[in-house]
Specification:
single chain, 199 residues, TIM Barrel, eight-stranded parallel β-sheet, 8 strands, binds pyridoxal-5'-phosphate
Length: 199
């Protein structure tokens, strides 16, 4: 489980850490830059927001995993930086499962094409997929989208692209994490259910 801490102050993040939270997620690089140094060292940080190509270097410095890779160019940039640092950056591909204009993310059809085109990556590991289904009050509405992401994940495992090291499905938030787990989530991203409503 990843505690999503956008707008949450370091003091409250520390309380969650003391209560056992190990992973934290943040959407905004600017916020993360000032906040992460004030948080417990033991936390592992996940970037879940939209990443601009010119922000790849600071993002890799601050975060252990990037959940929101939404283009081949971004993936190549991350890999180039990882290679320069002598590391393999764990990333997930963000899939716009609802085909929403308002959301970032690749279309499901883009995924095999992107993995094919990526070839062998020296500085990044594509460890799986992430999604955020269209908003709904009813978790059952999310189920078909989770199921679709899980099916895509399975078929990429079967295809076995050199750049693909599939092991994670990042899906499910405060309103629908139980459904996501039923459909195979390995990481749920929980904000409000831990920290309360955001101001
Ligand atoms: C805010 C956010 C979450 C957490 O949402 P909650 O409803 O507060 O649990 C999860 N994933 C992403 C990408 C987010 O932006």
């Amino acid at each position: 489980m990843i505690g999503i801490v956008k707008t949450v102050e370091p003091e409250r993040i520390r309380l969650a850490y003391d209560a056992g939270l190990l992973d934290a997620g943040e959407n905004y690089l600017q916020e993360a830059r000032t906040k992460i140094p004030l948080c417990p060292d033991g936390l592992k940080w996940h970037f879940i927001g939209h990443l601009q190509q010119n922000k790849v270097n600071p993002a890799i410095d601050l975060f252990s995993m990037i959940h929101s890779v939404d283009s081949l160019n971004l993936l190549r940039r991350i890999s180039a930086r990882g290679e320069a640092l002598g590391i393999e950056v764990p990333v997930l591909l963000e899939v716009n499962v609802g085909g929403e204009d308002t959301k970032f993310g690749l279309s499901p059809d883009d995924i095999p094409r992107l993995l094919e085109a990526a070839g062998e990556l020296k500085g990044a590991q594509v460890q799986g997929l992430m999604c955020m289904p269209p908003y709904s009050d009813d978790p059952q509405e999310s189920r078909p989208f989770f199921r679709r992401l899980a099916a895509l994940f399975q078929s990429m495992n079967t295809e076995g692209f050199p750049s693909w090291k599939g092991r994670h499905l990042s899906m499910g938030m405060s309103g629908d994490y139980e459904t996501a787990i039923e459909e195979g989530a390995t990481m749920v991203r929980i904000g409000r259910a831990i920290f309360g409503e955001r101001k």
